Queue: 2 jobs
Job 1
Amino acid sequence: MSDLLLPPEQRYAEMIAKRQNEDGSELSVLNLGPTHPATHGIFQNILLMDGERILDGEGTVGYIHRAFEKIAENRPFYQITPLTDRLNYCSSPINNMGWWMTLEKTLDIKIPKRVEYLRVIIMELARIADHIICNSVLGVDTGALTGFLYVFQYREKIYEIYEEICGARLTTNMGRIGGFERDWSPTAFKKIDEFLAEFPDIWKNFENLLTRNRIFMDRTINVGAISAEKAMSYGFTGPNLRAAGIDYDVRVMQPYSSYEDFDFEVPVGESGDTYDRFCVRNAEVWESLKIIRQALDNLPEGPFHADVPDYYLPPKEDVYNNMEALIYHFKIVMGEVPVPVTEVYHAVEGGNGELGFYLETDGSRTPYRLHFRRPCFIYYQAFNDMIKGEMLSDAIATLSSLNVIAGELDA
Amino acid sequence: MALETSVIQDKLTNKFGDNVTSFSQIKDILTFEVAANSTNDVMRFLKEDETLRFNFLTDLCGVHYPDNEKDRQFAVVYHMHNWVDNVRVRFKTFLNADNPEVATVTNLFLSANWQERETYDFYGIIFKGHPQLKRILNMDEMVSFPLRKEFPLEDSGRTDKDDRFFGRTTTNS
């Protein structure tokens, strides 16, 4: 039997027994997590340590696994949306929109331009919220709380925008097949305008605090670096890959939701270290702001959802007062609408990278098979490779900059 | 010039003959089947061929088809992406229900490691040559493979999950 199949504690015990340092000190095993504050969720790293240096490690995941795909196979399409919210819950609208787009591709539904622009706005706001969390918490994990306090209130402001649009803040469950459940209110646009007016200064301040900060740079430069080639082999996408120097971005490579209409850059780094990941995310926030401004300036008039009564859940008021709406509502909820037998893969650029949905349908009201390509699950297996030979404190900074969200890791 | 799907199909058919079949364009992705004993070779060819250049393994997952004939009851679905020409392909390999085994592709892509472990965990599909094929998300003591279709979700009407037994209803009656 391969050594790797043994529990790591047992494997390390044998390694510790074999090796004793010249000065008489011994190797030790350290459990980093599952509920260590720096593990940002619940995942365990069993590390073999020589003093403070990491010799080897094994990640253990699954602590919040909630049988996501199994549940999805037993639920109608609309009821799967709340499951997607809980993937990367820092940017749940992106997951929601990715799921709707997958269904729309399956059902061959054409979306009004206005809906696509509104989706772009909300997805970019979600990306900003995601990057705010990742970068400010990287500061916290390296000992700098102030930046976090500066920017975190703006995550709240983004949540208020979500709330205005759909009534929820964290797990948004936003949208419908074909569009949104209602048009955005003037208050929502006002809140977005306020955010766009206030946030850039704060973000600039945040950058000033950390980007050229000697301590922060010492803690992050050349820490947890990964080469472009290795990152690709490990399946990296998103900011973590771009930090290594590859400008792969789903929004540019295979544009969805009218991303081709917008003018924006794809920031890339060079060395793939923690500092580059931080800088790439910082730069992406500016690009997202640019995209939102363009979308608002050119927002087309028109309906807020496609005209597909077979799939679009009618407003509740209509269900109570209009016979046709009641019939459609009944047919959608009871699964009597036609669904083609097909398979679809659709990817969106999530806060963390390529979030993919592989959907196989058999004509029934539930997916025959639904698989999520969760970028965090893909990243996390590289973590132990990235921290080998480094200090324990470097592992904390590396983990933080990878932005591994447990909801997406364990699904 | 963009990589045409006909080129992919021709190259694969010339190289692997009957081991690659059922080419069809499903929505935006060229899909085909690969014989279980050729997956590793086909993936290597897709990755290393100078024209094909599918340099990225996007996704890998299992599917269970209990209604199929015995030789085709399990499938492993691979999604690959050529970043140079920006083309995706999907291929499936079908496995026997009694012996769901296929070669690992961890020698080609490091990302396959955990994805294969996950597929093993949920479907019991054995990836031959995998360095560390053990459960990943579920607990080690588990004996079933939960994403197989024969394992239904528990009945939500189970009486031991009745709210009354947990003091959650106002009257507890």
Note: The interface with chain B takes residues 2, 4-5, 61-62, 65, 67, 69-71, 73-74, 105-106, 230, 232-235, 248, 253-254, 342-345, 347, 354, 356, 358, 360, 368-369, 371, 373, 377-378, 380-382, 410-411 of chain A (CB under 8 Å).
Job 2
Amino acid sequence: MLAAMSLALCIFAFDALSPLQGAVAVLYTTVVLIAARSHLGLLILASGVVCALLAVLGYFVSHWGVAQQAPAVRLTVSLIAIGITTVLSYRNQVVAEQGSRSDARYRSIFDAAAFAIWESDWSAAFVLLEDGGEPNEELLTQALEAAFVSDANLAAAKLFGFAYEDELIGRNIYDLYTPSAVAAAVRILAAFKRGGHIGEEEVRFKTITNGSVDVVLRVSRPSDSGSCKKVIIMALDVTERNHARARLEKSQTELLHVSRVTTLGQLAASIAHEVNQPLSAIITYVRSGMRWLAREAPEAAEVSDCLNHIEKNSLRAIEVIDRVLSLARKNDGVQEGIDLGALIDDTLKLMDASLKASHVSVHVTAPLELPAVTGDRIQFQQVLMNLILNATQAMSEALEGQRSLCLDIEIEGDDLVMEVSDCGTGIAGDLEELFNPFFTTKPDGIGMGLSICRAIVERHGGHLSAKNNNRGGATFVLRLPASPAEHRVFA
Amino acid sequence: MTIAEGQDCCVCVVDDDVEILGSIGSLFRSVGVQVALFDSTDAFLRAAPPTMPSCLVLDVRLRGENGLDFQERLARDGIHIPVILITGHGDIPMTVRGMRAGAIDFLVKPFSDEQVLASVAVAIEADRTRRAADERAAIVASKFDSLTPREQEVMAFVVTGLMNKQIAARMNLSVITVKIHRGNMMRKMDAQSFADLVRMGEQLGVRDASIRRYGDQA
């Protein structure tokens, strides 16, 4: 301010008093430029006006009453120069003010947002990509190890378990990435390479307190200009939602189990009662008949009465069992053509949450063209669910990263063969024993699952067996005749 | 304990399953025991109550009325007959409830013949003992009813242990008159001794506990 004023005075003195015939007034533009450094629009305008007035004044002081053409032209040029400089400086200032206003707005949104936002420098990754690298885990690991958080808001810090933003800013967070987060970042990079602008993935990060958070990530592609490639990452914390979902899933599963067990229990109790009555009568008649025979004068009529009733009650017991069997046959369900691939997809979708909660990764391989199988879709789904659940439970002891479940479908002649393999503890003892009713290896199992599964598969003309893998774990082999075999149902 | 053939006793069986009913009937007849078979609780109640030592073999699962409820109803209505419960599934709470209501035994179908015969023998014996006691009590009560009101009053005072003089004072009679009433009363009650009379008084509940020989509270 002071500098600009003294400079203006110097120029004025020089312009008015020196005998030099030059466009000294042009130098006033530097005064305007100095004023522009104050970033105050009004001051820039004022300095332009004052300089123009000083230039005019200087002209009149040195050429008072003498109308000369050349100085007048020089004055005009100077005035134009001062004017242009002032207007340009002012406009610059206005633009800069708008920029800083939007910067400030961005900053306040960034800081106050309830969801986590951080900027991360992924330059290394983009450099490698531009050098023709393919987005893969190796490349990304290199890049992420070199990346650091250049900016973050409080929500981001809290997400990872820090107390303040400063603890996160400038830090490398590769150690907080889970394998799933790395894989997601690879997918996002691949999308950027294909020309996408925003990548969205649901991933899990570790926190510094050894916990974990589930987030929905949105990564915005950095601008193409400049060598610094900062990505803006937004993360919405869905840990609680996932926990709630997992809890719901768990309670639903438990409820289903309980209701199954109770209906089975009630059914068993009522069948037991129905069969117990005639058996009880039979035993008493047998005992009574023996006593009639043992008497000193055996009563042939009474003994024959006992035998008649024994026969009658035996038939009654058989009738009860027949009724139970026909009831079971009635539930044979609908016969339809089933696309096994679609059924597997649907079943895995249904079980997605529980598989995630158990950290099981599922790998499905199937030929492109699958013939349909004939049967009851619901029953097949029950079989599939049962096998997947068993595999999941078998792997509960395995390390989290190594729980993989493979569903492999192949066509062998007229049959479809599906193998469900886990890498759990394998099956100890007799493999066939697994399929016996009431045989269970689980502390809370009732030992009916696999026996029912086998019954369902065999009713559809198929076969279910188990084997231990060489590399550990067990495989259940489900063999089904492909349609259009003539529809067979085995009771 | 077993039931001797030809013993005067009767086993009542209530079960809505005629085959179970028939098989238990056949079993008891084969050992020479009288049975009465009923396919419902109502049929049992309609029949004349047994006059000889008897017991009731009762199924818990009945159409219409639960066996346990019926057992409690019998106790409420003062029908004394030992009950043996039989059930298709003897779960603990039912057993507990049945035994608490005074069941002799709880048999789970299919039961062995020895089991049911032994339980019935115990029940019949219990009923026999009860009937004998009831009979004795009935005789004592009829003797008491044959006393005049004065004699009954004297008996009530005597069994509390009051002396003749005290009784006379309470009844505003002379000691002589009291002695005459007392003699008649002892004869009619057929009491062998003072102790015998006190026992009968105890059975009849004629003793007034507020009256004492020493330190009157009346």
Note: The mean pLDDT of chain B is 86.
